[in-house]
Design goal:
mainly alpha, Ribosomal Protein S8, Chain: A, domain 1, Hypothetical protein af1432, three-stranded antiparallel β-sheet, three-stranded mixed β-sheet, 14 helices, 8 strands, about 5% strand, flat
Length: about 525
């Protein structure tokens, strides 16, 4: 029973497996057939697309070929035209070369003719020189004198016969010329002076600072003098606190340092806090404010004279403003420069010179004084180099040197020299101590006395004129003129003085006889 059941189960399993395998085979066959059909469809579709793509590609290729052919035709036409133009140019070039060759041949012929003519001229000159030499030799034989000896003898004869007449004529011409020039110069100067008016103020070496009360003096001095020492150390000035009520004096030869100290003190007094740290801050602020004030002073000077501020480099404007705190014999340098520019412009207008360049050169003629303490050399050369550095033209730069030259090369330089002398020489413009005044007069007399033949020397008119009396036996009339010029040149080279110095040489011969 059990065995039969097991056999039945085994048979059923075998049959089931066979049946399942058959089903799987049928399904697999169907799937394969379906896949093959699908693959054939896709292949057919791909072939169709491929044919379409190939057709489109052929169409594009044909279009590109057509365009290329058209472009090739256009290029061929352009190349042909270019070749034609080149051929025409070559023909023209050949023609020009032929013309140039002909011209060169003509020039060569002319050169040859010129050389032949030159050679003939040389031969003629040589013959003339030989004839002159022969004539001179014959004349020397006849006269019994050489050429040099004859010339020397003739000069002596003329000098002896006409020396007195020449001297008299020379003196008359010089006198008449000097009178005419002096009259014209006085007329121009009088017109310039009457058209310009300026205040006269002489700078000193001290500055006063007003205090609200005498109690502030103690606060300025500070404990054990620390405040006043700090101010003096940082500004390089001397603070004088004396019995003058409500006043402190700042003493220093540098106007810039005095101004820094004054601004700082006024700020400290107004603030009320006075101690070393606050003093240091106040001095820094004062220096900054002073730099702005210096720049404004330079700009104001340009505006006053009608010179565009934008036409001047800002650094040069700053240097110009420093002249406000520079003095020469007590005269403010910036005010002096403005006066020179104004007077120079008025005189240039009368003389028909360049008014604008004269004004500009007059304003900057002393620019070297703004930095002469920081650089080596005289202020005219320093000013010339500064203006050259900023790219100014030579005629403007030269005016810095011209106002110290004896004979300026340009009319504008001569005008600036005259305006400089006029501004510095007018009464009250400059000051000297008695000791300096005496030393200057002694130096003038000593310089003039150093020449041979000088008998007496007197410096008169506050040192603006030197009268030199000479010995008539040693110095004749012609030598007197040369002596005056030599003394003037030595004074210019060795001495410093405001304005100009007139040198007058006096030669007097006295003949005395007694009738008995």
């Amino acid at each position: 029973m059990n065995l039969t059941l097991i056999i039945s189960i085994i048979v059923a399993l075998v049959v089931g497996n066979i049946f399942g395998y058959a089903l799987r085979q049928i399904r697999t066959t169907k799937k394969v057939a379906t896949a093959e059909a699908e693959a054939e469809k896709r292949i057919a579709a791909s072939k169709t697309k491929e044919q379409e793509v190939l057709a489109k590609a052929k169409e594009k290729a044909l279009a590109i070929l057509d365009e290329a052919k058209k472009e090739e035709k256009v290029l061929r036409v352009e190349v042909i035209e270019t070749q034609k133009r080149l051929e025409k140019r070559e023909e023209l070039f050949d023609q020009k070369l032929l013309e140039m060759d002909k011209k060169q041949e003509a020039i060569d012929k002319q050169k040859e003719e010129i050389e032949v003519r030159k050679e003939r001229i040389r031969e003629v000159k040589t013959q003339i020189e030989e004839l002159k030499a022969q004539e001179a030799a014959k004349l020397e034989e006849v006269a019994g004198l050489t050429r040099e000896a004859a010339i020397e003898r003739l000069e002596k004869m003329v000098q002896e016969d006409y020396e007195e007449a020449l001297q008299s004529r020379l003196r008359k011409l010089e006198a008449s010329t000097e009178e005419e020039l002096e009259a014209k110069a006085r007329q121009i100067l009088s017109l310039a002076v009457t058209r310009f008016a300026s205040s006269v103020s002489v700078e000193t070496t001290t500055t006063q600072v007003e205090l609200p009360s005498d109690e502030m003096k103690g606060r300025v001095i500070g404990k054990e003098g620390r405040n006043i020492k700090a101010i003096e150390h940082l500004t390089g000035t001397e603070i004088i606190v004396d019995e003058t009520p409500n006043m402190i004096t700042i003493s220093c030869f540098s106007p810039i340092r005095r101004q820094v100290a004054k601004i700082a003190l006024e700020d400290l007094i107004k603030d009320g806090r006075i101690h070393p740290a606050r003093i240091e801050d106040a001095i820094k602020t004062a220096k900054t404010n002073l730099a702005k004030e210096i720049r404004k002073a330079g700009e104001d000077a340009l505006v006053q004279l009608g010179i565009p501020v934008s036409s001047i480099d800002p650094k040069l404007v700053q240097i110009l403003g420093r002249l406000k705190y520079r003095t020469s014999y007590g005269q403010n340098a910036l005010q002096h420069s403005i006066e020179v520019a104004t007077l120079g412009g008025l005189m240039a207008e009368e003389l028909g010179a360049d008014v604008f360049n004269t004004k500009k050169g007059g304003l900057f003629h002393d620019i070297g004084k703004a930095v002469d303490h920081d650089m080596q050399g005289a202020h005219p050369e320093i000013g010339y180099n500064i203006m050259k550095k900023f790219g100014w033209p030579e005629e403007l730069c030269y005016q810095s040197i011209a106002h110290h030259e004896d004979r300026p090369r340009t009319i504008e330089g001569a005008i600036v020299k005259a305006a400089d002398a006029l501004s510095g020489a007018r009464p009250g413009a400059r000051k000297n101590t008695l000791e300096q005044y005496i030393q200057r007069l002694e130096a003038l007399e000593k310089t003039a006395s150093s020449f041979e033949g000088v008998e007496k020397v007197y410096a008169i008119q506050a040192g603006r004129e030197v009268r030199v009396f000479v010995e008539p036996k040693i110095i004749d009339d012609l030598t007197a003129f040369r002596l005056a010029r030599d003394i003037a040149k030595r004074i210019e080279g060795e001495l410093s003085y405001p304005g100009e110095v007139k040198v007058t040489v006096v030669r007097e011969t006295r003949a005395v006889e007694y009738a008995r």
